[in-house]
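Re-run with default settings, no changes from the original entry. Doing this only to confirm the output is reproducible before filing.
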Amino acid sequence: MDEKTLSLRSRLLFLIILPLVLIVSVGTVALYFDSQKKSQEIYDNLLHTISQVILRDTVLSDGDLLTEQLLETLTDSLNDQTFYQVRDESNTLFVGYSNPPVIPKESEIKPYQPIFYDSIYHDQSVRVIFSREFISSMEIPGWVNIYVWQTRIGQKKLLYELATDAFVTMIIMLISTALIVWFGVQFGLKPLLELQTAIRKRSADDLSEITRTVPKEVSSLLSSMNNLFSQLRKAFTEKDDFIANAAHQLRNPIAGIQSQAEAAEKSKTLESMKTRIRDVAKAAKQTSRLTQQLLSMEHISQRSIKSEFKKLNLVIITQEILTKFALRADKQKVTLSLLCHESQIYIVGSETFLSEAIDNLVDNALLYGCPNGGSIIVELKLKSNSVELLIKDNGKGIKPELLGNVFDRFFHDSKSNNGGSGLGLSIAKTIIELHDGTLTLNSDEKGTSLFISIPIKR
């Protein structure tokens, strides 16, 4: 399963229980070897004790074999058959069984120091103890070698019991810990599950803030969600306002076209009809311009224009726009001029939208600044870290009480009758800001200046 598709509960359980299983597994293996070591020590101690008992019994009985009763007692108590042999200093069999398991060659025989080793006796695995002891006895004078060996059935049984107890204990601990962890995760995730339930119960239109008490670790997530809801509310409100304003702005020119067309149809003279048709064409042109601006506004609000960025020569773009407005400026008796000491000024941006922004600003200057003659100066400068563009007219300026709203959508002077949509400055400002630039406006009775500054990205 892909890690990204795992639920938070699964991740927590996986990250906690998996290491726990590994620890229990390692612990179980360690306990097994520890149990093996302990059972070996227990049986070695018993084997050493038996060898001393056998040696003592041999001395007391003056070399007679152990009684059957003693051997049976040892076998019954230990669940293992016991064998022994005692040889004197000349290596002569004194008492016991013949052919004891051979001592490993590498073993170093020292007095009173028992040697333990494993071997095979009559096809059975046995544990052997060999020791060299000094006996003061009339029948057994001097040093003797004693062998005692025993089958390992009881030892294996003890090892199995110890290992089983350890394994069962570890499994119980694992299951208990896993249950505690599971309930802990369930309890810890309860606020998130409640938050999930609350969000699921919301309708698609409910973008109000979520006001719930959540743990500190989740508060940042909740805050981000509420910020997103706030932005969505604002975006939906702006879109609704935009649609309402657009419908209102389109309604008037369309109604004007309709009325002019009807008037042209009822004209009694050819000259009157031509006049009405020119009015229809003018209204259609204004409607087309408004539609284009509406589309531009929608485009820049719906997508990131930075995907269209490339290296641009702003001098050429500005010259092309002024050439486009030259005939209109001449008809309005407006002097339209470009001041620039550079032939090439490169920036990184969207050619389509930067052209749209500058086009709107020049159009705005012609439409509002100098509708009946004057001068418009476009000045382009290259600075060390930015490009500056100034569009200045010598018109009547903007009333001080209107300056705070000039960049609002659909805003224009209610007393103005120039056919503007009130979108030009808003579109231009949005485009410039998407290029990490700024657009500011200054106006007084001597005219209006629009100042653009765009950083140069190297």
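The chain has nine helices and twelve strands. The first strand starts at residue 82 and ends at 87.
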